[in-house]
Amino acid sequence: MRPSILSAIVVSTALPAMAFKVRGTYQPVPYLQSRVLIRYDTRYDERKRPLSEVACWNPNVPGLFPDFDEWLVQDDIPPRTVTIPSITGWEHPDCITCWMVTWEPAGITRFLIAIDGSKEGFVTSLEAMNSLTGGQARDFNQLEPLEVEATQVSMGNCVFAPMDFGKETFDEL
């Protein structure tokens, strides 16, 4: 049986512009787009896994995010999560950010919420990786490593509305 983890590293930083979808249209925002390699780790599929095990866990709340102190296990949060190399702890500004990840060969885009840090590259759940690859996540020959475009986008793309964060508009997030 093959291991349940694919390898990943960051490839390069590219274009300084990208877009996010609001009311059916894509709007430009000033985030960087990067080509990264992504892998999966089945720990992020464990719905009862305590969120206290991820870097974005705030020990002072306790919780994953101050306004969401009821988020205690992975089953409490939206299912598509990702870990990114920049996150080093709960106070890092990349905690609870939304990332648009596109696998260009298939033209598939998914939005993932950053909840944890990784040593290199992006890491997501097997479920999210299958969604991104049309069910091919375990096909190591074709997909190792899987290079994707990754762009930080508005939280509204990750099934959140501004009021979820106590804000009136996305600009306040």
TrEMBL record:
GO cellular component, one term: extracellular region
Keywords of this entry: Secreted, Signal
Main localization of the protein described in the UniProt heading: secreted
Signal peptide positions on this chain: 1-19
CDD domains: DPBB_CEPL-like
Phylogenetic classification of the source organism: Eukaryota, Fungi, Dikarya, Ascomycota, Pezizomycotina
Subcellular compartments: Secreted
Pfam families: Cerato-platanin
Family listed: Belongs to the cerato-platanin family.
Superkingdom classification of source: Eukaryota
Keyword Secreted annotated: yes
Protein name: EPL1 protein
Record keyword DNA-binding present: no
